Amino acid sequence: MSDFKYFSKNGQILPIEQATIPLENVEYSYGFGVYETMKVRNGVVYFVDQHVNRLFKSSEIIELIHSYSKEQIKGYIEDLINKLRSESENAEISCNIKMLLIGGREPLLFIIPLSPLFPDRKLYSQGAKTITVHNERLLPNAKTLNMFPSYMAYKKAKENGCYDALYIDSQGYITEGTRTNFFAIKGSTLFSPPLDKILEGVTRTTMIHVARKHGFEIQEKDIPLSEIDQYDDSFLTSTSTRIVPIRQIDDFIYAEIPEKLKELMAAYDAFLKESNGIFVV
Ligand code: PLP
User: Fold this and answer.
1) How far is the CA of 141 from the centre of ligand 1 (A)?
2) Is 39 in contact with 239 (CB distance < 8 Å)?
3) Which atom of ligand 1 is nearest to the CA of 50?
4) Quick one: the chain helix, strand, coil %, rounded to 5?
5) pTM for this entry
């Protein structure tokens, strides 16, 4: 649901009521599209370059041909934010932005502002409950509209009072959450599943940068579900929720959130504030 009055379609600002998908668009019904979710807080669009780059990478992976340039899309986002700002009593817009690029002979590019959902603070102080689900995402490096397994897994998580479901691949390794990246932590080392098996999250990338600056070591390796008790804790990252510590995976409960993870969470929040939405390596 959107509380906002306008959206952008192929670069044109239109009333939100017109944010509809034509049913004759066969590509949409086959899920032939890619998308991004970005965060806008107090007028600052976070990591727009990284999100637009990933939109392009995702469309390349699924061979979705379109004629937009990155600069054009960034301009459309800016136009939309300016329009929302001019219409709002509060000049500092906060919302999430969904970009949807649907393939076909005439690709459709929607940029839609959505009301942000702010997670319960307890999630950060107590940690999240998660369940596991067997699933391997098709083309894991792409963020595509092939969302049915994700929808079902997330629904199952919610029905079980969980924050998210973790995907387990055919070899018993944890890969990622339905909309989150997974990490395990031991001392000052962070372990991530190998990049070729997951989506390269923008939060993952920026968090790794912050972690390295704060003396953490990062290792990519397969993390078997059967070995989660060998780590101090694990956690999830995503644009809308930042770093969320995990308290429970199925029946396994971590004793506590380690101080090192609390340190990293604080460092990442500080980085977000200072970044002004820009990340340059
Ligand atoms: N992994 C998957 C499968 C996702 O769908 C998402 C986001 O939707 C993420 C990870 C986290 O990515 P980001 O940090 O860019 O939000």
Assistant:
1) 10
2) yes
3) 15
4) 35, 30, 35
5) 0.97
Nearest CA to ligand 1 atom 7: 179
Q: Name the nearest CA neighbour of 172 among 249, 236, 62.
A: 249
- Per-residue pLDDT of 123-137, as tens digits, reads 999 999 999 999 999
Query: Could you give the C-alpha distances from 97 to 2, 33, 36, 65, 268, in angstroms and in order?
Result: 10, 16, 8, 22, 21
Residues in contact with ligand 1 (CB, 6 Å cut-off):
37, 143, 176, 179-181, 199, 201-204, 237-239
How close is the Cα of 89 to the center of ligand 1, in Å?
Answer: 32
Can you tell me which atom of ligand 1 is nearest the CA of 239?
16
> What confidence tier does 157 reach under pLDDT thresholds 50, 70, 90?
very high
Could you report the per-residue pLDDT of 224-280, keeping only the tens digit for each? 999 999 999 999 999 999 999 999 999 999 999 999 999 999 999 999 999 999 999
